[in-house]
């Protein structure tokens, strides 16, 4: 599901290119706090650097950031705010294309252009950043490069199994492992090219390109690069990447108002008429409102965490993917596969995004279609509206959805209460543990909301009026499901009964003799 790499894309300059904590000792906790302080210091941009960058861009590059002010936040980083009241649609930031770094700039770089050729855009931008960083103050982009910092707790830096274990149960757990390996595999591929042709790539000229520097640059680019839909390319946009990224709302839904003191802007995009990247306020906002840029890729918290190492706890459009398919043993498999492919779906590993407050109609339609066994009913399934095929069919797909949700929830080692207790100790935990706990909690809330939505749909069809009262027409199936659902709770119920017996709660229920017949 990742959009880390794309195929041939148009750049904005017009060219085509290939793209456990409670048991720690006090000394251990103090070391953790110091380590976390260092991590935060490496991740944040100093307000002085942001102001210096804004001045340089305004004077040398024609960037218009006059609507913004840069203040220091509680962590010593930058908090971007509006200088004055702004209407919806007002320009917050305008950056000419000449001030943005794209694959065109990578292709013109004397050191890394050939190495980047044929590789994904983000790899090329990472190579560009490596080369510019090593120049230090001599780089043409020095004021900008100084502000390009990665979060050292981002998953791309992880190599230890105990770190990946933080994501146990999360749908992105496997992606975190794969991306970490892929980054190092990509580096190995690049160094192999260098070693294979020393005449074109003199070893002394490429000593700067170490694995640690490459991974750091790639993590920075993954967190900072902006996807520009109109230009169909990624770009490193100065000042824009100083502004925090927030989750985008559900497609078709307006972002929250700025009543909470935060103005959501964007998503940023390339404006053809002015040949610049523009960020506009999405809602009306008052002066001193904190500026957040909406994610152009509409990623969920899992993807945001993989790319930035942070989670948006107020993500207005967070979602998880539900996977479904057609069983190959289905006697109508071939016919169903042809119909689905004709509508742009697949018969295997079809994913649908599920939001907290809504589920896609097409997910229900796909499931209904997958379970029908009468060829005549296949034509009764609508992918345009939420239309029930039959009570039995609806009951079956809802039970399947409920079972999938339970399986997803069972993958986690912790419950929501555990996550809340962990977050209470956030001042004693590394950033990666804090953010991983936030991610797990956000995912569980989405799964829980989906289960509640399924229960609401099940309620009207579970009970059907009969002469004997409210009776489920599929009571035999329901009894089986209830029996299966109750199995995980049996050990807990037995333990609770034991505790009640130990407290003497059952004494009044025990039969008492009438005297005599006892010992003594």
Automatic annotation (TrEMBL):
Keywords: Methyltransferase, S-adenosyl-L-methionine, Transferase. It holds the Pfam family Rubis-subs-bind. InterPro entries: Rubisco_LSMT_subst-bd (IPR015353), Rubisco_LSMT_subst-bd_sf (IPR036464), SET_dom_sf (IPR046341), SETD3_SETD6_MTase (IPR050600). Residues 1-33 are annotated as: Disordered. The keyword S-adenosyl-L-methionine applies. Residues 19-30 have a biased composition (Polar residues). One of its GO terms (molecular function) is protein-lysine N-methyltransferase activity. One of its GO terms (biological process) is methylation. SUPFAM superfamilies: RuBisCo LSMT C-terminal, substrate-binding domain, SET domain. Residues 328-445 form the Rubisco LSMT substrate-binding domain. This is Rubisco LS methyltransferase, substrate-binding domain. It comes from Ostreococcus tauri (Marine green alga).
């Amino acid at each position: 599901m990742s959009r880390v790499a794309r195929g041939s894309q148009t750049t904005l300059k017009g060219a085509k290119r290939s793209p456990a904590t409670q048991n720690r000792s006090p000394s251990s906790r103090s070391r953790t706090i110091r380590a976390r302080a260092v991590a935060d210091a490496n991740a944040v941009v100093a307000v002085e650097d942001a102001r210096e960058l804004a001045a340089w861009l305004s004077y040398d590059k024609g960037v218009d950031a006059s609507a913004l002010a840069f203040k220091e936040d509680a962590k010593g980083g930058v908090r971007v705010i509006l200088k004055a009241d702004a209407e919806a649609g007002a320009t917050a930031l305008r950056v000419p294309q000449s001030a943005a770094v794209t694959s065109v700039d990578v292709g013109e770089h004397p050191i890394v252009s050939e190495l980047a050729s044929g590789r994904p855009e983000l790899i090329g931008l990472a190579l560009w950043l490596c080369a510019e960083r090593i120049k230090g103050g001599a780089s043409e982009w020095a004021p900008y490069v100084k502000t390009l910092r990665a979060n050292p707790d981002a998953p791309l830096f992880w190599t230890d199994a105990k770190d990946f274990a933080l994501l146990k149960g999360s749908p992105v757990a496997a992606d975190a492992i794969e991306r970490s390996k892929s980054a190092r595999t990509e580096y190995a591929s690049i160094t192999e090219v260098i070693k294979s042709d020393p005449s074109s790539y003199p070893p002394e000229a490429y000593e700067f390109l170490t694995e640690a520097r490459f991974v750091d640059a790639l993590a920075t680019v993954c967190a900072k690069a902006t996807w520009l839909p109109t230009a169909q390319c990624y770009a490193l946009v100065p000042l824009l990447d100083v502004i925090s990224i927030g989750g985008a709302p559900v497609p078709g839904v307006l972002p929250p108002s700025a009543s909470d003191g935060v103005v959501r802007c964007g998503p940023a995009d390339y404006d053809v008429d002015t040949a610049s990247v523009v960020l506009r306020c999405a809602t009306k906002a008052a002066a001193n409102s904190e500026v957040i840029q909406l994610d152009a890729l509409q990623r969920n918290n899992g993807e945001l965490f993989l790319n930035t190492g942070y989670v948006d706890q107020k993500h207005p459009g967070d979602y998880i993917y539900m996977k479904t398919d057609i069983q190959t043993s289905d006697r109508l498999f071939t016919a169903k596969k042809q119909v689905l492919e004709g509508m742009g779906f697949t018969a295997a590993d079809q994913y649908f995004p599920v939001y907290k407050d809504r589920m896609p109609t097409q997910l229900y339609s796909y499931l209904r279609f997958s379970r029908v066994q009468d060829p005549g009913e296949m034509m009764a399934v609508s992918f345009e509206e939420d239309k029930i095929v039959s009570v039995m069919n609806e009951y079956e797909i809802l039970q399947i959805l409920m079972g999938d949700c339970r399986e997803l929830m069972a993958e986690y080692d912790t419950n929501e209460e555990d996550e809340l207790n962990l977050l209470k100790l956030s001042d004693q935990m590394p950033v990666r543990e804090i953010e991983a706990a936030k991610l797990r909690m956000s995912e569980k809330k989405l799964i829980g909301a989906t289960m509640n939505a399924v229960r609401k749909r099940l309620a009207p069809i579970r009970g059907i009026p009969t002469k004997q009262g409210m009776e489920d027409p599929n009571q035999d199936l329901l009894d089986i499901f209830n029996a299966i659902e109750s199995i995980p709770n049996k050990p807990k119920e037995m333990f609770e009964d034991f505790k009640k017996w130990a407290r003497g709660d059952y004494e009044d229920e025990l039969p008492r003799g009438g005297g005599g017949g006892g010992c003594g």
